[in-house]
Design goal:
With 258 residues, the chain is α+β, with helices and mostly antiparallel strands. The chain is 23% helix and 31% strand.
Length: 258
């Protein structure tokens, strides 16, 4: 079966659909987009408002790398989405928020959700889900989350969602293939972000600023200056007691005072 992008009017979750397709052997690059979702979700199981008018896309990825390094896929995919928006002249106010969001004007524009699995033959794969607010701006704000913003709030002339879908789809696959090739050319102990580390850190919001790291339950873990993200994808915060590093499953960051 050749990989291709399919667009449907509505489904529960494009990620769920492609996790099942991946288990059945769907090839690298298989894409599914929906005009609306009834059970969209984001990181840590948060509901993702999937009302019609926005970009809702998932892609099966089978990069030929150590599956332990799949954690680099969200950053690489986020950079690819940002690059697509730049090519359309839409990204002058958009940056990345560690570990997997697109933000603008202090608001959330989009998110990346990567879920890893194994197919029925035991082969590893991942599904990368991408949601970008285009013509509809969700009003609900998740606990501890950022309020939303849409591309149409930032720009007067936004291309049709289907145009953006095609561009984002091809950009993500190309970026993942390039990342895998570069990663495999590095030493075995290179971190999953190593091939894209400099570019990723350069596009991150809040580097050099005071932030608070909070646990999934909302407890404060640390406060200090957000110095960088290492090549393993950990946020490095300079605190009064020294440098602290947090994996994306351990913490989320917010600017001090929010």
């Amino acid at each position: 079966m050749d990989a291709q992008l399919t667009i449907v009017d509505v489904t529960g979750s494009t990620n769920d659909d492609l996790l099942e397709a991946g288990k059945q052997g769907a090839p690298h690059g298989t894409g599914l987009a929906a005009r609306a979702q009834t059970a969209g979700r984001g990181r840590r199981g948060h509901k993702w408002d999937s009302t019609a008018g926005n970009l809702l896309l998932s892609i099966v990825l089978r990069p030929r790398v150590d599956p332990a390094k799949y954690s680099g896929l969200a950053a690489v995919s986020g950079l690819a989405v940002l690059g697509t928006l730049e090519a359309q002249g839409l990204a002058n106010e958009i940056g990345l928020k560690w570990p997997n969001d697109l933000v603008a004007r202090g608001h959330k524009l989009g998110g990346i959700l990567v879920e890893a699995a194994r197919d029925n033959e035991g082969e590893p794969f991942a599904v990368c889900g991408i949601g970008v607010n285009v013509n509809y701006t969700p009003q609900e704000v998740p606990d501890g989350g950022l309020a939303a913003i849409g591309l149409s709030d930032l720009n007067e002339n936004v291309p049709a969602v289907d145009v953006l879908l095609e561009e984002v789809y091809h950009a993500v696959i190309g970026a993942v293939d390039a990342w895998a090739e570069r990663l495999n050319a590095m030493e075995e102990n290179a971190g999953p972000l190593a091939p894209a580390h400099g570019e990723y850190v350069a596009r991150l919001n809040w580097i050099g600023e005071h932030v608070i790291a909070r646990s999934p339950a909302g407890d404060q873990l640390a406060r200090g200056i957000f110095q960088t993200v290492d090549d393993c994808g950990r946020a490095c915060i300079e605190t009064e007691d020294g440098m602290r590093s947090f994996h994306f499953e351990e913490a989320s960051l917010r600017p001090m005072g929010t």
